[in-house]
Inverse folding.
């Protein structure tokens, strides 16, 4: 079994990585899978849609943002959406309204569920999952993924369909 080098949260926050940013989980650096074209297209479409729909209500869309979900866990979401005031911290420690993860070819189901569990425990109200390979969308609620016909947040008059995402 390979030995893992433990580093402090402060060391992690001072570190820049070649390639995509990485998560920090209880002292260990954890690589995130890099998206391919379908992942990238879905991410760009979501950002544009959320930015456009956020003109009615203040939504602040961020990609690849480090967020501190516990004192010893940092996650980097594909897309994070804050409501109200813009996040002031470089690494927010307050949960966004929405986190969105887009499936990469090499993602493991158990890792995705653990990520969503972290978001839910932290207080993220809307956890969305996009599968660009099957062109399906899901929400994470009560410990499980559920396929939905559209992402909806009625209080923000926000609705996004798979056709808009995968266009």
């Amino acid at each position: 079994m390979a030995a893992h080098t433990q580093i402090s949260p402060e060391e992690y926050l001072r570190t820049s990585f070649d390639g995509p940013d990485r998560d920090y989980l209880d002292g260990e650096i954890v690589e995130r899978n890099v998206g391919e074209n379908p992942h990238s297209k879905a991410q760009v479409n979501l950002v544009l849609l959320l930015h456009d729909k956020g003109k009615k209500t203040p939504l602040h869309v961020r990609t690849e943002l480090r967020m501190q979900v516990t004192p010893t866990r940092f996650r980097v979401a594909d897309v994070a959406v804050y409501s109200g005031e813009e996040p002031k911290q470089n690494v927010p420690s307050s949960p966004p309204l929405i986190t969105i993860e887009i499936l990469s070819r090499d993602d493991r189901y158990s890792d995705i569920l653990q990520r969503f569990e972290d978001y839910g425990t932290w207080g993220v109200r809307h956890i969305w999952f996009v599968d660009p390979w099957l062109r399906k969308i899901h929400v994470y609620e009560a410990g499980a993924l559920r396929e939905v016909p559209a992402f909806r947040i009625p209080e923000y008059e926000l609705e996004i369909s798979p056709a808009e995402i995968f266009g």
In short: The first helix runs from residue 9 to 13. The first strand starts at residue 23 and ends at 25. The helical segments are 9-13, 37-53, 109-122, 162-166. DSSP finds four helices and ten strands in the chain.
